[in-house]
Amino acid sequence: MSDADTLPPADDQRIVDLKQALEERYLSYALSTITQRALPDARDGLKPVHRRILHAMRLLKLDPNQGYKKSARIVGD
Q: Does the global pTM surpass 0.85?
């Protein structure tokens, strides 16, 4: 190996159990996903995906009093 291929020594090297590290990181990822996407917001009771759909419907000026529109139009826009 040439000198360009070697990494400089790091001062904060430590040995970490791979299984333990993956468990911790996956748990934190799963919890953040649940709290940010899967659970409804306490302010309005909507999930982010539902809030995006309602916002798109508002931009398209869709109202319950108007005629029928296909859902692909709302989701696609």
A: no
C-alpha to C-alpha distance for 77 and 75, rounded to whole angstroms: 6
Q: What are the tens digits of pLDDT across the range 31-60?
A: 988 888 888 888 888 888 888 888 888 888
In a domain, 48, yes or no: yes
Domain assignment of residue 53, given as a range: 18-76
Does residue 23 lie in a domain region?
yes
Q: How far apart are CA 35 and CA 47, in angstroms?
A: 10
HEC secondary structure over the chain: CCCCCCCCCCCCCCCCCHHHHHHHHHHHHHHHHHHHHHCCCCCCCCCHHHHHHHHHHHHCCCCCCCCCCCHHHHHHC
How confident is residue 23, by pLDDT bands cut at 50, 70 and 90? very high
Q: Amino acid letter at 65? A: N
